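Give me the fold.
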Amino acid sequence: MTYPIPKSAFDDRLAIVGTAGSGKTYAALGAMAILLHSQARLVGIDPLGVMWGLRLLLDGKTPSAHDIAIFGGPHGDLPINEHAGAIIGETVATMRESCVLDLSQLGTKAAERRFMLDFLTALYRHTSRDPLHLIIDEADMWAPQRLMDKEGDAAKLLGMMETIVRRGRVRGFIPWLITQRPAVVSKDILSQADGLISLKLTSKQDRDAIGGWIEGQADREKGKAILASLPSKGRGEGVLWIPGRDILRDVAFPSNETFDSSRTPKRGEKRVTADLRPLDLGVLKSTLATVEAEAKENDPRILKAEVAKLKAQMAKAVEQRIVADPNAALRERENAFAAGRREGREAGWSEAWIAGWKSGHIAGCKAQMHELGAVALAVTPEAPKPPKVFYGTSNGSTAAFGTANTGSTSGPGTSRIISRNPAAIVPAPVMGKGEPNDELTSPQRRIMASLAFWRSVGHETPTREQVAAVAAYKPGSGNFNNLIGSLSSRGYTVVPLPGCLTLVKDYASLTADEACAKLWSIFDNPQRRLVEAALAATGDLTRDELAINAGYAPGSGNFNNICGKLTSMDVLRKPAQGRVAISDWAREVLS
């Protein structure tokens, strides 16, 4: 019996559907054997652990001609775990050999999804663009119609599947989808199939899912007859529908030449066991050694054991320390409190001293103007640097005091009088380029450093969002607004345009290397991934291309939020509708 799928259709995107035991996986294995005979390159995604039979003939003992590598599972040439998807994907994308990914021992659905997401993403990124048949069993697991987790790995995996099935042809992908339930596979993905092989289907929902396709190619009565026949089909019997090749007919799949590793034993029947001889991986050996090391390094059991060991060591060290010095923890706590109180006093002293000096200066000016009969207001000069703070004791408690250049002086433990006579104090010089200004508080200096950064990269009037991002503030927060107001009142910043700020006094500029390091430091990990993907592109990208290159599902809320933040900072720009690119200034700074 000849194989019912014409060889000319083997490079079409196919969907193979049928209930459990209908022979859909067996039919797919027969097609995979034909592909291997023709020297085609394929990857079998095998969550059930049944594709290993391709390596044996019907007797389950004699090796077949197909030296296909098996990753994972009880018959694997190399073990895998849920964290090895990316490196396996990169390896498979660059090798010439065919392989099977046996996911049957990963343990949980979440682990399988995590592996598949990393694998498909790496495979898509690193593909050689040569033709690659991607045979995906249990397709409803990776591309469900109903998505429960709309932000996690399941959503990202669905987006990756859609990208490969819909747009993968230009990168060489020829996907075949296998499922028991066509009704629960994403319609956006299943509808992309060029051809359908439907074996036994008993559920009306599943038959309805393919009924519209058949009726579009045949008369209504014939379509009804075909659908009505599906529940009674025997194992290996079904309907073949390839509209582009004008094929719509009943088919029966012949016996395979390879071992039927997907067959379920009948009641009382002894399961046939088979052992595979180890595969000589040859030129892949050095590459796969890296995969094996990665798998071992990320093995959850090894990691848990290491964490438990470290916890035990830490607990033992803490216990020994407490025994050796029972008051150590108490002293450490008291020292931390004392350091915090000291920093608070120093900050309070500096603020209060400046405020007091300005009040005294204004009062002195008014008195002088009154004596001279002046009518013009005097300009308040910059406040001088606050005096140092030293610590003395008074009645057994710690107190902070300033060391003044004028006024009375007494020993520790007594109050100190600071002169407020403006004539007795020389104003500090206006801060020059590169000079620190101790008049500013730490939050104010963060704002000034942000403004100086944007000036260093050529943005004389950065937006409030840009200034806030570099200074690590929310642009609409009251704290940020108060800081901008306080700096503007002191003559450091102005608002030249709505929503923009500019630095009107010199502040330390950054070198090119410092600007590069500063810009990279303000990106969190998700933002860094998008910036790196945009930098790697020679020109602009579609939003979908940028998402895929950065490892995100196109159109996801998370991706859109990150894009929005980077766009508001002008790190990304939008050269055209639906396209995005790294800004020229950002490329110059980061390159």
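Residues 374-380, 388-437 have pLDDT under 50 and may be disordered.
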